[in-house]
């Protein structure tokens, strides 16, 4: 059965068809490999309609993942300033987001991500392309080390997320943010700019 070309008539199913197509594209080909044109073709719509409903590819990706926070709203604060303080700013910003109702929504997203392969792939793409890659692109480090540094940062932050917000292991679950920043930020900073050996 061939798909008809051109714009699909506006109906309630159009937006969902685009979202379904986008989820598959991002999960199978990753953020970099997926294109608006391919997503539109798979959904049977004109690419302009995808832009109409969702804006840019990045906005479509964030809506597909249903992330309650846009990293471009907090990353500039983390990146700007002394590179030797990125660890402090990253952990402090992370806690300032997670210790709010937005964090509760994100916990629910992570729980669902653990139970579905495609969601895990989308979360991995989100962390890689929307948070870690832009963060490390601003740091003076060997580009060959970026993938390892990114995954080390993610491992530390994911561990903090699971223990503080999902398992709620005390005393970390209720520790003041400044205590956690003081304890965790030096490790994050080493992963960002320090020697890895």
Primary descriptors:
single chain, Tetracycline Repressor, domain 2, 197 residues, 10 helices, mainly alpha, globular, Arc Repressor Mutant, subunit A, 72% helix, 2 domains
Explain the overall architecture:
- With 197 residues, this protein is mainly alpha-helical.
- It has 2 domains: 54 residues, Arc Repressor Mutant, subunit A, CATH 1.10.10; 123 residues, Tetracycline Repressor, domain 2.
- It is globular and about 50 Å long.
- The N terminus is likely disordered.
CATH superfamily of the largest domain: Tetracycline Repressor, domain 2
Helix content: over 70%
So what's the CATH class of the largest domain? Mainly Alpha
Stretches with pLDDT under 50, minimum 5 residues:
1-9
Note the topology.
Elements: H1 12-33, H2 36-43, H3 47-54, H4 57-65, H5 71-79, H6 86-98, H7 101-113, H8 117-137, H9 146-166, H10 177-193
Helix pairs in contact: 1-2, 1-4, 1-8, 2-3, 4-8, 5-6, 5-8, 6-10, 8-9, 9-10
């Amino acid at each position: 059965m061939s798909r008809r070309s051109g714009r699909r008539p506006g109906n309630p199913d159009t937006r969902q068809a685009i979202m379904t197509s986008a989820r598959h594209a991002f999960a199978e080909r990753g953020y970099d490999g997926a294109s608006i044109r391919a997503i539109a073709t798979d959904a049977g719509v004109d690419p302009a309609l995808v832009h109409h409903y969702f804006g840019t590819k990045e906005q479509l990706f964030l809506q597909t993942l249903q992330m309650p926070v846009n990293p471009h709203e907090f990353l500039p604060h983390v990146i700007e300033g002394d590179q030797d303080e990125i660890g402090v700013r990253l952990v402090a910003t992370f806690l300032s987001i997670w210790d709010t109702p937005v964090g509760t929504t994100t916990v629910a997203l992570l729980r669902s991500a653990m139970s579905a392969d495609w969601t895990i792939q989308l979360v991995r793409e989100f962390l890689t392309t929307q948070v870690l890659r832009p963060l490390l692109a601003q740091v003076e480090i060997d580009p060959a080390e970026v993938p390892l540094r990114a995954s080390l940062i993610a491992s530390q932050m994911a561990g903090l997320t699971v223990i503080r917000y999902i398992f709620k292991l005390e005393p970390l679950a209720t520790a003041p943010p400044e205590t956690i920043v003081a304890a965790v930020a030096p490790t994050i900073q080493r992963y960002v700019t320090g020697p890895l050996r």
